[in-house]
Design brief:
By secondary structure, the protein is an alpha+beta fold. The protein has one domain: Roll (SH3 type barrels). The protein is built from two helices and five strands; from the N terminus they run E-E-E-E-E-H-H. Strand 4 and strand 5 form a beta hairpin.
């Protein structure tokens, strides 16, 4: 399973950033996202930022990862309030925006 981790940029150097998230710190390539401001959020996969995130979107992804971690540990899941909007509960307009959002900074919407 491939999982991107939301991480916050703590320091930058040309082409790279030091990021923290979910209990770890790593040096991340910014080749796919371009420059990201210190304090900004990125989705990291294998030490590369693949997408810039808003703080709200980073919180949603972290909530989803918390649910996944709880499920893998056999803990009961709080399905009444998962901490983010499930696609089935989203208004059609929000779901359309989510589905059409570019995945990468230089990608055109679908």
């Amino acid at each position: 399973m491939c999982i991107g981790i939301p991480m916050r940029v703590m320091a930058r150097e040309p082409g790279f950033a030091t990021c923290v998230g979910r209990g770890s710190t790593c040096r991340v390539s910014l080749a796919l996202t371009g420059d990201v401001d210190v304090g900004g959020w990125v989705l990291v996969f294998k030490d590369s930022a693949v997408e810039s995130l808003s703080a709200a979107r980073a919180a949603e992804v972290n909530s989803a990862l918390d649910l996944l971690q709880a499920a893998l540990a056999g803990e009961p899941l709080p399905l009444d309030d998962p901490g983010f909007a499930l696609p089935s509960a989203m208004p059609l307009e929000d779901l359309t925006v989510l589905a059409e959002r570019p995945r990468f900074a230089d990608q055109e919407p679908r």
